[in-house]
Amino acid sequence: MTTTDVEKGTSHGLTNNTVHSFAWQDITVTVKDRETKKPKVTVDKAHGIVQAGELLAVMGPSGCGKTTLLNVLARRTELLQADICGCTYIDGEEISLQEFRIISSYVEQEDVLIGSLTVKETLNFAARLALPKNVGKAERLQRIEHLLRSFGLSAQSGNLIGTPIRKGISGGQKRRVSVASQLITSPKILFLDEPTSGLDSAASFEVINFVRDLARKHKIIVIASIHQPSTKTFTLFDQLLLLSRGKEIYNGPVTAVTQYFVNLGHAVPLHTNPAEFLLDLVNTDFEAHDQSLERELACLQNHWDMSPESESITREIRRIVSPNKISNQKQRHASAGTATILLALMHRAFIKSYRDVIAYGIRVAMYMGLAIMMGTVWLRLGTDQENIQSFINAIFFGGAFMSFMAVAYIPAFLEDRSIYVKERANGLYGPTAFIISNFVIGIPYLFIITILFSVVSYWLSNFRPTPGAFFTWTLYLFLDLVAAESLVVFISSVKPIFVVSLAATAFANGLWMSVGGFLVPLTRLNVFWRYVFSYIDYQRWVFEGMMVNEFATRTYSCMSTSTGCNCLYQTDLADQCLIDGNAVLKRYGYATGELGKRVGIILGITAGYRLLGWFALYIRRK
Questions:
Q1: Rounded CA gap, 53 and 30, in Å?
Q2: Whole-angstrom Cα distance, residue 521 to residue 64?
Q3: What residues have CB less than 8 Å from 362, skipping those under 6 apart?
Q4: What is the 3-state secondary structure (H, E, C) of 382-428?
Q5: Is the dihedral of CA 328, 334, 337, 342 positive or negative?
């Protein structure tokens, strides 16, 4: 079997003409128990074989090792913190991870889909991210149309998947979209983790029936973990692998399982769902202290180990696996090129961002409300000395609260990250492409927000009324938003839990406000906070830059009294009853000019957040 033979992008479309069997032998998974810290076997010497066109159900009670075994078979072991032994074979050969990912696809238990995309767009982007360069646009579109027809989704092709605000397709249709998005690349082996989770019995039957028909028609090997199927759904499977506490109880044809257990003295009662009966039989979680049940389960496990059926599987694996039959072929990347992946990710993110009001739409409205509030609270400030502090307060508010409100981006980023985790696990791309596309797509929206906010708040508040001053203010505010969003990306990548990310981001913003030079001038700030945190505080540099922009070339009138002028700041202009704005900067310890220095520092801090976010995504696999 050559690498070309196993590539997804062949002219055969969905039909598998190259992979005839998938086998595994002595799969053992050992983890450390969280409480005792002792080794615990979660899967024990599992073995089996599935032929092309067959549908295997991996069943067992909760915690029996179904998903663990499925991840090992799918070679997604990076998700497991465990010691793993055993081998998997494609037509009797051990192949590289890169080759295996070319011929296989994995459908998660949860439907990780972008709700603001249509059904057809979802399949289109899945194809653009996964198909090799030699598959042209015409063939890609042909595959999409074929899948839409095969899965009964043609009528829904233009419908949105669905968002919290806008209702989309049904749960059963979402499962079909999830499966179809993995079949777009013509895999030879398809892994499904709980494909009927959250569906009623009718929808469950519908999904499994589609998959069964697809497997038989196109000779695809399908392995699915499933919890408790209905009788109709259960009979759709060709093979059954029954687990309990990580050990095999049965592994063979579904049609033979009833007779197998009859021979052991466990006949399925009349009018009883066989799947439900088997799960009850091997589930001892609720009778953990019943010694007779423990002995019965051990007897079932030992009987299978010694059974002719188990020995038959072992002989079949030995027959197809020759000694030293290991593929030495060079690895080839059959996925899309780097540029293609980046363009597809940016295109997809762009569509999501303008359709999903949670990502930027709500934020635009929120910032506009903030701008109107700021402009009307600090309305038409004059150049009298009593307004100097009001100008300072407005500058702080404009920078700090714009930054703080970036927490609204957390839900949208966490949704994007969940898509990234799924696609990375399928070997489509890594954190670099994700971070770059996320950053690039955010830039124009942040710029639009900055312009809208500045146009309203800057002129209403009567900051220095020159084009240069306005655009300098806009530059600092834009960099403030970019840095704030990068902080959100970093924190949400480290701990992708909404409440935790929200709390951590709010705490970080509170810290930056405290050491930014407004609440306590830098000249009087405690040395620890100044040298440890203030210099890496982007809000500090934004506030300093805005202060210089406002006060460096502006003068303010003093209060006239019967005895002369009463100036809050003594400058060389006191004899003219004026205050030079540089006196305000001197009190805060700010030097004039240095625009390039401040911009460079803010950009460096932003790059630091993005790099830290990249590193967090790189080391976290889920």
A1: 32
A2: 61
A3: 408
A4: CCEHHHHHHHHHHHHHHHHHHHHHHHHHHHHHHHHHHHHHHHHHCCC
A5: negative
Helix (H/G/I), strand (E/B), else coil: 522? helix
Structure tokens at 377: 């609270």
HSE of 359, CA atoms in CB hemisphere, 13 A: 22
595 vs 383: CA distance, rounded Å: 24
Q: Tokens representing 192?
A: 């499904």
Going from the C-alpha of 112 to that of each of 166, 349, 351, the distances in angstroms are 17, 15, 17
CA distance 543 to 188: 58
pLDDT of residue 517: 92
| C-alpha span between 220 and 237 (Å, rounded) | 13
Q: Give CA–CA dist 259/278, Å, rounded.
A: 12
In sequence order, the β-bridge partners of residue 557 are 384, 578
Q: What residues contact residue 561 under an 8 Å CB cut-off, 6+ apart?
A: none
Contacting residues for 582 by C-beta, under 8 A, at least 6 apart: 551, 552, 571, 592
Angle at which helix 119-130 crosses helix 171-183, to 10 degrees, equals 20
Q: What is the pLDDT of residue 285?
A: 64
Phi, psi for 465 (deg, rounded to 5): -85, 65
Half-sphere exposure of 489 (CA within 13 A, CB side): 26
φ, ψ for residue 472 (rounded to 5)? -70, -45
- CA 337, 328, 103, 345: dihedral to nearest 10 degrees? -20
Cα 6 off chain centre by: 28
Token pair of 597, please? Answer: 């220095």
Please spell the DSSP secondary structure of 92-129, one letter per residue: TBB--HHHHHHHEEEE-SS----TTSBHHHHHHHHHHH
Asked whether 535 and 387 are in contact (CB, 8 A), the reply is: no
What whole-number distance in Å separates Cα of residue 442 and Cα of residue 345? 13
- Tell me the average confidence (pLDDT) per consecutive run of 10 residues in the chain, 622 residues long: 38 73 92 76 91 94 88 83 88 87 86 90 92 84 88 90 84 86 86 84 84 90 91 94 92 93 90 90 68 82 91 91 52 64 94 80 87 94 93 95 91 91 87 95 93 95 95 97 97 95 96 94 90 95 96 92 83 90 92 94 97 94 72
Give the pLDDT of residue 329.
42
Residue appearing with tokens 């020759």: 322
CA–centroid distance for 358 within its chain: 16
Sheet of 247-253, strands arranged across: 104-107, 189-193, 221-225, 55-59, 239-244, 247-253
Q: What is the distance between the alpha carbons of residues 339 and 341, in angstroms, rounded to a whole number?
A: 5
Written as six digits, the tokens of 171 are 């749960």
| Cα–Cα distance measured from residue 511 to residue 491, given in angstroms and rounded to the nearest whole number | 14
Bridge pairing between strands 55-59 and 39-51: unpaired
Which stretches of 42-169 are DSSP H helices?
A: 66-73, 97-103, 119-130, 137-150
* Domains (range + CATH), the chain: 16-112+188-320 (3.40.50.300), 338-619 (no CATH)
Torsion angle (degrees, nearest 10) of CA 226, 230, 235, 239: 20
Contacts of 355 (CB under 8 A, 6+ apart): 116, 117, 160
Bridge pairing between strands 555-557 and 578-580:
antiparallel
- What is the Cα–Cα distance from 290 to 285, expressed in whole angstroms? 10
